[in-house]
From TrEMBL:
GO molecular function: oxidoreductase activity
Organism field: Pedobacter caeni
Protein's UniProt name: Oxidoreductase FAD-binding domain-containing protein
Stored Pfam families: FAD_binding_6
Domain FAD-binding FR-type residues, every copy: 17-115
Length: 237
């Protein structure tokens, strides 16, 4: 629920479990449109898992949801990788944060993207999916699972997966290719027998993710989890 009457968000803030006050400790521009934000705070009771997200109230009647990319409960660190996309309210909020700013939030909640029993996982998305990918990496390596990251990124962001230390990445330019079923069908990940029964986690742009899912269902025996993060013309899915 990205938009709602003010009183609904007021009530939710009073009733939902709260995080201790978070302070912006470090800001880093990874590109003109992607920012890493590190918060400090008392995170000893933080329930952080792959897919944990925080709803930021970016206006009286608006919230925007961001996936936590990294957390260190012991040392009081929580990080986000955010896409500064256009002039949307979420982008403005994240763009305007300064070191020392304090943010009041509810406890993270978690989408169940991760299946620890899967032998192989493919994580797909765009700039809005980088935080999720970063949260996946240490868990996949720790559990010795085979994995691949596939991104469609603007040219200015094509080096970011490497900057984040992501491994086994394939980066494609964001030119609408993932809207074409015939093109997606020719991807090696679809045609290679070794990945026919992988778990696919599809996020980012709704239309790209939906096209990818159709091809996976038609051409492989893989399991699919789809969660579109944004769609042209829609404010905050």
């Amino acid at each position: 629920m990205p938009n709602a009457p003010k009183w609904i968000f007021d009530v939710a803030e009073r009733l939902l479990p709260k995080l201790p006050l978070m302070e912006v400790a470090h800001l880093e521009l990874l590109s003109p449109s992607v920012r890493k934000i590190r918060f400090s705070g008392d995170f000893r009771n933080l329930n952080y898992k792959v897919g944990s997200y925080i709803d930021f109230r970016v206006g009286e009647k608006e919230v925007r949801r961001y996936t936590a990319s990294y957390a260190d409960n012991k040392n009081g660190i929580l990080e986000l990788i955010v896409h500064l996309h256009g002039e949307g309210s979420g982008s403005k909020f994240m763009k305007n944060l300064k070191v020392g700013d304090k943010v009041d939030n509810n406890q993270p909640r978690t989408y169940r993207y991760y299946d620890e029993s899967a032998e192989k996982l493919v994580i797909f998305g765009d700039e809005t999916s980088l935080g999720l990918a970063r949260s996946f990496l240490p868990v996949l390596k720790k559990n010795n699972q085979k994995f691949k990251f596939i991104f469609e990124l603007d040219d200015e962001n094509k080096a970011i997966p490497e900057l984040l230390g992501l491994e086994n990445c394939i980066v494609f330019p964001k030119k609408g290719s993932f809207r074409k079923e015939e093109w997606v069908s020719e991807l090696p990940i679809i045609k290679t027998l070794d990945w026919q029964e992988a778990n696919f986690v599809l996020t980012g742009n709704v239309k790209s993710a939906q096209t990818f899912r159709r091809v996976i269902k038609a051409k492989t025996n893989g399991n699919v989890y789809l969660h579109g993060y944004w769609l042209e013309g829609k404010n905050g899915l």
